[in-house]
């Protein structure tokens, strides 16, 4: 200890540090620091203080600041010390300024002069100190006065200085890219510096620039590749080795840069394949930093234009990471797998058990990453299992970030893949229960719409009763989750009588509403509960309910909460006004009328146009006098809310069999009104349909953008269109259920598993069960479009499935053809036979993870589809070339309603855009434009018999396949065109 | 990039803090905001047994959503690097190792007290390794020569001011006066 004191440090400082080290509490520490602040405040301004002493004071000042106390009184001393002739004092001055001055502190600018002076110093250490300080202290305003000096230093003969200069430019670039943009060539030249450490620094600078604008740097790719090659071939001096790995951090950065430059750019990526393969092989030396490089390669390989060999290599690396005992490597494995799995789901299947292991890990970070991976693997088959895991974590988590991520994922999952309405409602309610404050309003609203609508016909009450029972249970809890009140009160108010214990519901509501303690955190709960009770009283014959309402309303009639008071008084008035005969309360709040239009049957301005003369007849005189006074007659508002929805027209034309008898009534739609009036039943379906469409319109942004922005993602729209309204009427059996029988053949087709353990422990069996639930559908469900429709259509079957542990066989059939069968206009097309199911789907009897099947036709779900299409291919003469401009095409694409899509495997010789265009030309489609960068084509033709235009969008996929999307105003034409295209593309193969 | 580097001991006392991305907290001074980050970091890393992996994700509000904490635990000290998603996880772990090895060379068996008494020097070492949040130098010899050149220079200048001290330490190039 005594030796410590000799280190130019005074006893004061030593005592301070010792006291803080020994302090037992935060308060004690704060007191010590406050004393220190006082001491410094007193001593630092003293005039005759030596610079050496001042240096120590500044170190103490840094210490005080680090412990969270303000020491602004001493900043000026730091600025002064920076001007010292003594380098070590100067450094402390700069250090203290850099650590303590906040970014907007005016003292920063006071240093500009000193920095300029030091940058021109003949002592390179002073220059380096100034550069180091500049990096920490520079602000946008400081760039112009410093820039000229900095640029000069790029020619300095010390590499230490050049290296730091490059970093200063990097900092300037980050602060204000425009200020240094004119230095482009000079900045690039630093890459060729003779000293590798300067080159490494310049990679940082270029990386920052490339991140912003990758296009301008494509020509540097050969340079980067050759630098990387030189590094891995040990051509740098030994000094740059770290644990015998040549310049690992430079390698990491180069790989990151290559990933940026090679993204979605085939030719650029091709230039990298060789060196990437080299790097990945040479880095694999079993040391930590080697794994870091291997992992970075995985990141790069999955980002750039894919190469199968490299992907396999990456998958092998991931497999090793996952199999490692080291948690850090496991973590990388999971992260890597999450990156691979979205584009190439086949790699996931190998690692089922490893993933399950990580899921049950006690390590929070690993678990979180695994959830992330699961979310990306989600498909219609495993959604229930994965969602249950996500809910489980939501229950346990207190971390705000994680909860938010989980909620948004669960909402998306429920929305995209829900197997049944009941499951959807249950999931959303559970999420709201756990984290109501994080659930977006739209999601709650959508869930309520579904309950109001009651799902598909015939089963409405079951869904509602289910929801009611869920909420009734919550009424009795000590703490009712705050986020749920709106939903809970509404559902109970509307449908409580479906509950098995409906008699006690009203009582429970009344008790809860009167309970101050339980409603503390929920200011609006009381109003909502009161309204629910009013509705119940209106719908129930039970005298007790009315009595409960009356006593509650009387209690709140004088509440200081105006809203509550109003509702209470309204309730009392309604109660008083309704006698046994008149039933005003019942009329005002009829059962299950939330979807009806309250304005139906209301008088309009024109006398003869009304049919419900008794509805608002008392207004007639008022209306008449207003008209006489010159008021404009009431105009029915135009109900155009769904004009843009693709479903709208088609559905109308399909389902309105009888002529429109009379104009529609004014259509202000109220979805969840608390006071629906009127009594229209004939309009039920119409309104429900509109509601349905509005629901689609409300869907989360990712779907709408997918539809509008990128044709690839637009499958969901049509899938939705053939939803609940199409299904019951179509002559064909509901398709989503069709592939179920395929489960049996699946088991026979399973490839032999590599290791067949003789005996399984219970734990193993459990893991395998989980794996089966998890990996069902992975690999086959790549193209799984967001499906709302099956949720409604296959309610019964999937509910059944949810009860039995082994997952149902997934429907990995080509979705477009299946889902679009719903259009009733079409002749009943033969349902395609269930395609062979790949053995990726585990089931209960799977004793070990199944290996990835060799890419054979049997395991390719699309192969079967191709064959099928071939037999049905129509003569290509049906289509005549249609010349369109790209703009024309774009304009037509959006409004064209009917879409069909399919993925077609191409032969290697045929994967170029030209070849595909030539193939489709045989069908009659003429190329509108090819976009080589994204490997997309658009084509157009006219279907001669119907004169319907037909639009093609072809995306060449990395897997030597093409995703063909066809749109036409006529669904039949779209189907024909797709079949013809698929036929043409596969036959030319 | 690296958003910040925090060294904190087993009882939550900050030893070295360096923020490359400033933190803000509504209603707090910059110093207090930094202090609260240190406390959050400490709370989270100290809860994790050493057998867990050395990563923590997205847990420091002030640094934004995509922040990952990568840390190593040595005897009494946690070395925590907060990074964005572009940094290589394992690479940073090795960087911490480089940093600690450099400290070890510089102070000859570094201990917690060295970090307190020579916090300026620790900062200089760190400045050689990481600049503006970017990994700059990982060769320990180069790192130390960057720091030691200045120490030598310092000794020259101080020897004039303080003959006795100069004599006592000029033979040792490393860190004068430590043990």
UniProtKB/TrEMBL annotation, chain A:
Residues that bind a 1,2-diacyl-sn-glycero-3-phospho-(1D-myo-inositol-3,4,5-trisphosphate): 43
Biased composition (Pro residues): 804-815, 825-837
SUPFAM superfamilies in the record: ARM repeat
Stretches assigned to the AP-4 complex subunit epsilon-1 C-terminal domain: 880-986
Major localization listed first in the record, in broad terms: membrane
GO MF annotations in UniProt: clathrin adaptor activity
Compositional bias ranges of the Low complexity kind: 719-730, 740-753, 780-803
Region (Disordered): 633-766, 780-860, 873-903
Gene Ontology cellular-component annotations: AP-2 adaptor complex
Biased composition (Acidic residues): 640-652
Membrane recorded as keyword: yes
Sequence ranges of Basic and acidic residues compositional bias: 757-766
Domain of life: Eukaryota
UniProt entry keywords in alphabetical sequence: Coated pit, Endocytosis, Membrane, Protein transport, Transport
Subcellular localization(s) per the UniProt record: Endomembrane system; Membrane, Coated pit
Bilayer topology: Peripheral membrane protein
Pfam families for this protein: Adaptin_N, AP4E_app_platf
GO biological process, one term: clathrin-dependent endocytosis
Similarity comment: family membership: Belongs to the adaptor complexes large subunit family.
Entry function: Adaptins are components of the adaptor complexes which link clathrin to receptors in coated vesicles. Clathrin-associated protein complexes are believed to interact with the cytoplasmic tails of membrane proteins, leading to their selection and concentration.
Entry protein name: AP-2 complex subunit alpha
Organism field: Pelagomonas calceolata
Lineage of the organism: Eukaryota, Sar, Stramenopiles, Ochrophyta, Pelagophyceae
From TrEMBL, chain B:
Keyword set, alphabetical order: Cytoplasmic vesicle, Golgi apparatus, Membrane, Protein transport, Transport
Main location, first listed in the record: membrane
PROSITE patterns: CLAT_ADAPTOR_S
Record-annotated AP complex mu/sigma subunit domain positions: 1-149
One Pfam family, short name: Clat_adaptor_s
Single GO cellular component term: Golgi apparatus
Keyword presence, Membrane: yes
CDD domains xref list: AP3_sigma
Subcellular location: Cytoplasmic vesicle membrane; Golgi apparatus
Transmembrane portions of the chain: none
Keyword Protein transport part of the UniProt annotation: yes
SUPFAM superfamilies in alphabetical order: SNARE-like (SSF64356)
Membrane topology: Peripheral membrane protein
GO terms classed as biological process: Golgi to vacuole transport; intracellular protein transport
Family statement: Belongs to the adaptor complexes small subunit family.
Full protein name: AP complex subunit sigma
Species this protein is from: Pelagomonas calceolata
Taxonomic placement: Eukaryota, Sar, Stramenopiles, Ochrophyta, Pelagophyceae
């Amino acid at each position: 200890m005594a030796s410590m004191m000799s280190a130019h440090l005074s006893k004061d400082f030593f005592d301070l540090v010792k006291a803080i080290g020994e302090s037992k509490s935060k308060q004690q520490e704060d007191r010590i620091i406050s004393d220190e602040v006082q001491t410094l405040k007193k001593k630092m301004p003293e005039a005759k203080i030596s610079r050496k002493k001042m240096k120590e004071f500044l170190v103490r000042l840094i210490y005080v600041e680090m412990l969270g106390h303000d020491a602004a009184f001493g900043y000026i001393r730091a600025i002064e010390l920076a001007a010292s002739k003594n380098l070590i004092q100067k450094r402390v001055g700069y250090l203290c300024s850099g650590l303590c001055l906040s970014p907007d502190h005016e003292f920063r600018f006071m240093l500009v002069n000193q920095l300029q002076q030091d940058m021109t110093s003949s002592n390179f250490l002073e220059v380096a100190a100034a550069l180091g300080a500049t990096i920490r202290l520079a602000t946008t305003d400081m760039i112009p006065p410093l820039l000229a000096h900095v640029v000069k230093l790029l020619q300095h003969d010390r590499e230490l200085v050049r290296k730091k200069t490059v970093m200063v430019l990097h900092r300037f670039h980050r602060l204000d890219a425009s200020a240094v943009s004119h230095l482009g060539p000079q900045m690039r030249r630093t890459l060729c510096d003779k000293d590798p450490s300067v080159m490494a620094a310049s990679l940082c600078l270029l990386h920052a620039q490339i991140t912003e604008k990758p296009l301008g740097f494509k020509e540097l790719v050969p340079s980067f590749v050759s630098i990387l090659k030189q590094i891995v071939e040990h051509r740098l001096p030994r000094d740059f080795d770290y644990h015998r790995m040549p310049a690992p951090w430079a390698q990491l950065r180069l790989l990151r840069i290559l990933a940026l430059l090679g993204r979605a750019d085939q030719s650029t990526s091709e230039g990298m394949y060789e060196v990437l393969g080299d790097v990945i092989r040479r880095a694999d030396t079993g040391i930590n930093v080697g794994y870091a490089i291997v992992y970075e390669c995985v990141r790069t390989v999955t980002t750039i234009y894919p190469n199968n060999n490299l992907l396999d290599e990456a998958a092998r690396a991931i497999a090793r990471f996952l199999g490692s005992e080291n948690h850090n490597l496991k973590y990388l494995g999971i992260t890597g797998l999450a990156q691979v799995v979205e584009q190439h789901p086949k790699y996931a299947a190998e690692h089922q058990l490893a993933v399950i292991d990580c899921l049950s890990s006690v390590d929070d970070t690993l678990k979180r990453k695994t959830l992330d991976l699961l979310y990306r693997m989600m498909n219609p088959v495993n959604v229930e299992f994965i969602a249950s895991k996500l809910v489980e974590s939501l229950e346990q988590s207190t971390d705000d970030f994680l909860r938010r991520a989980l909620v948004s994922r669960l909402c998306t999952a429920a929305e995209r893949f829900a197997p049944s309405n009941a499951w959807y409602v249950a999931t959303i309610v559970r999420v709201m229960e756990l984290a109501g404050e994080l659930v977006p309003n739209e999601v709650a609203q959508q869930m309520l719409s579904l309950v109001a609508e009651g799902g598909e016909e015939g089963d409405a009450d079951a869904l509602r009763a289910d929801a009611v029972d869920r909420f009734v249970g919550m009424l009795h809890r000590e703490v009712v989750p705050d986020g749920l009140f709106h939903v809970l009160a509404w559902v109970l108010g509307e449908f409580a009588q479906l509950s098995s214990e409906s008699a006690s519901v009203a009582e429970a509501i009344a008790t809860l509403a009167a309970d101050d303690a339980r409603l503390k955190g929920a200011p609006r709960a009381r109003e909502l509960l009161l309204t629910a009770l009013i509705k119940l009283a209106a719908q129930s014959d039970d005298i007790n309910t009315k009595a409960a309402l009356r006593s509650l309303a009387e209690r709140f009639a004088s509440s200081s909460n105006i809203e509550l008071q109003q509702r209470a008084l309204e309730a009392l008035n309604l109660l008083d006004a309704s006698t046994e005969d008149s039933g005003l309360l019942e009329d005002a709040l009829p059962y299950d009328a939330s979807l009806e239009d309250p304005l139906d049957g209301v008088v309009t301005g024109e006398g003869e146009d009304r049919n419900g003369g008794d509805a608002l007849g008392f207004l007639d005189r008022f209306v008449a006098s207003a008209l006489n006074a010159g008021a404009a007659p009431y105009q029915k508002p135009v109900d155009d809310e769904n004009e843009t929805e693709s479903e709208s027209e088609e559905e109308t034309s399909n389902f309105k069999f009888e002529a429109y008898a009379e104009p529609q009534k004014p259509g202000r739609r109220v979805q969840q009104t608390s006071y629906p009036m009127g009594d229209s039943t004939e309009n039920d379906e119409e309104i429900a349909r509109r509601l349905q469409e509005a629901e689609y319109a409300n869907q989360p942004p990712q779907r709408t953008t997918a539809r509008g922005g990128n044709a690839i993602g637009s499958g969901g729209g049509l899938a939705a269109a053939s939803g609940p309204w199409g299904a019951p009427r179509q002559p064909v059996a509901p398709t989503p259920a069709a592939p179920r029988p395929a489960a049996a053949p699946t088991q026979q087709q399973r490839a032999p598993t590599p290791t067949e353990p003789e005996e399984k422990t219970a734990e193993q069996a459990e893991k395998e069960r989980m794996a089966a639930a998890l990996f069902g559908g992975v690999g086959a469900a790549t193209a799984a479009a967001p499906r709302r429709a099956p949720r409604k259509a296959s309610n019964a079957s999937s509910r059944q499935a949810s009860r039995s542990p082994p997952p149902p066989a997934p429907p990995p059939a080509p979705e477009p053809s299946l889902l679009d069968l719903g259009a009733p206009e079409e002749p009943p097309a033969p349902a395609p036979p269930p395609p062979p199911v790949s053995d990726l789907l585990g089931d209960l009897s799977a004793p070990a993870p199944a290996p990835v099947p060799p890419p054979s036709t049997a395991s390719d779900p699309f192969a079967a589809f191709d064959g099928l299409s071939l037999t049905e291919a129509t003569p290509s003469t049906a289509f005549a070339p249609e010349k369109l401009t790209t703009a024309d095409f774009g304009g037509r694409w959006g409004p064209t309603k009917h879409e069909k899509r399919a993925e077609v495997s191409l032969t290697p010789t045929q994967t170029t855009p030209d070849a595909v265009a030539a193939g489709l030309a045989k069908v009659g489609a003429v190329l509108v434009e090819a976009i080589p960068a994204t490997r997309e084509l658009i084509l157009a033709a006219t279907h001669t018999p119907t004169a319907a235009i037909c639009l093609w969008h072809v995306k060449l996929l990395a897997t030597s396949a093409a995703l063909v999307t066809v749109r036409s105003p006529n669904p039949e034409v779209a189907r024909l065109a797709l079949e013809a295209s698929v036929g043409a593309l596969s036959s030319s193969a | 990039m690296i958003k910040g580097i925090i060294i904190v001991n087993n009882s939550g006392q900050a030893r070295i803090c360096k923020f490359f991305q400033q933190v803000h907290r509504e209603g707090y001074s910059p110093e207090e905001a930094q202090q609260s980050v240190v406390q959050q970091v400490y709370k989270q890393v100290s809860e994790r047994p050493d057998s867990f992996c050395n990563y923590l994700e997205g847990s420091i509000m002030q640094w934004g959503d995509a922040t990952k904490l990568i840390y190593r635990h040595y005897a009494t000290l946690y070395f925590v690097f907060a990074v964005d998603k572009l940094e290589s996880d394992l690479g940073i772990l090795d960087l911490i190792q480089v940093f600690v090895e450099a400290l070890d060379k510089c102070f000859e068996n570094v201990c917690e007290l060295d970090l307190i008494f020579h916090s300026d020097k620790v900062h200089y070492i760190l400045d050689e390794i990481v600049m503006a949040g970017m990994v700059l130098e990982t060769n320990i010899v180069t790192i130390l020569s960057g720091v030691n050149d200045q120490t030598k220079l310092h000794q020259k200048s101080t020897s004039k001011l303080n003959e006795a001290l100069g004599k006592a330490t000029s033979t040792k190039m490393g860190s004068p006066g430590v043990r």
